[in-house]
């Protein structure tokens, strides 16, 4: 099942308001971490999976990438990207990664920011990515951390009577599969996978693990969003850097 929550007006409007604020977990935790493991971008051909509003695609060309192809399942996101981040070196296509075809084309770098946990068939995705990468090319992605997606109802913080966070509840970890939560709208579906599944599927698909990062906030986040201090208690995100074997 391919879910397209971003074309829901309620979700899209809420999400856009959040991202335009510039005060988000993406800004202070996930994006700094994923950028920290990027290889030199000069001359690289890049595929941006789940490109959203195109900010990362723009970052790549601004830092020397030869070209970027940004793909996203959401028409609203692609329209926003074309308006907000146009560039001669960037092409945008409205297509989910599951349906993406690019005969004869390969990439030096494939990057995905917080989109993989929406994909049901992870082995198929890794197989497609491996086939699209040149030898020695890299696949770098961020996903919600397995400790964040494990519990069936995804209501993990246990609180006292005053609402203070006591601890993070981890449960159902080995029960992989669909999770459902409310995020602006009901029925947002994500897929929980164990850390071993995330890693071993990459290895089986011909990719070597280069680095894993469980990021914490940059200093600006601690100043503007005090709640990000809770990343020390449990990580929200996982970044995996892998490379296709020659």
Provide the β-strand percentage band. 25-35%
Query: Would you identify the CATH H-level superfamily?
Result: Vaccinia Virus protein VP39
**What coarse outline follows from CA principal-axis ratios?**
globular
Total domain modules: 1
Please tell me the overall pLDDT: 95
Q: In the CATH hierarchy, what is the architecture at level 2?
A: 3-Layer(aba) Sandwich
Distance between the termini: 33 Å
Report the order of strands and helices: HHEHEHEEHEHEEEEHEHE
The profile of the biggest β sheet is: 7 strands, mixed
How much is the radius of gyration in Å? Answer: 18 Å
CATH class: Alpha Beta
Return residue spans where pLDDT drops below 50 for at least 5 consecutive residues: none
Structural class by secondary-structure content: alpha/beta
- Placed side by side, the strands forming the largest sheet appear as 3-2-1-4-5-11-10
Total helical segments: 8
- In the CATH hierarchy, the third-tier topology is known as Rossmann fold
Report the helical percentage. 25-40%
User: What is the tally of beta strands?
Assistant: 11
Fold blueprint:
Layout (H helix, E strand, L loop, with lengths): L8 H13 L3 H12 L8 E5 L5 H8 L4 E6 L2 H10 L5 E5 L12 E7 L8 H11 E12 L1 H4 L7 E3 L5 E4 L8 E7 L1 E8 L2 H10 L2 E7 L5 H6 L12 E8 L2
């Amino acid at each position: 099942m391919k879910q397209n929550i971003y074309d829901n007006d309620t979700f899209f409007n809420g999400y856009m308001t959040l991202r335009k604020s510039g005060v988000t977990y993406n800004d202070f935790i996930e994006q700094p971490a994923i950028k920290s493991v990027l290889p030199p971008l000069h001359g690289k051909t890049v595929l941006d999976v789940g490109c959203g509003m195109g900010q990362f695609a723009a970052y790549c060309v601004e830092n020397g990438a030869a070209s970027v192809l940004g793909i996203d399942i959401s028409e609203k996101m692609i329209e926003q990207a074309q308006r907000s981040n146009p560039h001669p070196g960037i092409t945008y296509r409205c297509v989910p990664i599951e349906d993406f075809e690019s005969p004869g084309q390969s990439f030096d770098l494939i990057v995905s920011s917080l989109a993989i946990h929406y994909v049901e068939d992870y082995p198929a995705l890794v197989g497609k990515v491996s086939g699209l990468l040149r030898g020695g090319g890299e696949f770098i992605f961020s996903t919600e951390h397995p400790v964040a997606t494990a519990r069936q109802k995804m209501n993990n913080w246990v609180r006292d009577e005053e609402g203070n966070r006591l601890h993070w509840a981890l449960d159902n970890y080995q029960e992989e599969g669909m999770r459902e939560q409310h995020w602006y709208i009901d029925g947002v579906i994500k897929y929980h996978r164990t850390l071993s599944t995330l890693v071993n599927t990459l290895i089986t698909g011909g990719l070597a693990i280069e680095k894993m990062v469980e990021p914490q906030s940059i200093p600006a986040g601690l100043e503007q969003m005090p709640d990000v201090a809770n990343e020390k208690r449990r990580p929200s995100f996982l970044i995996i850097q892998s490379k296709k074997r020659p």
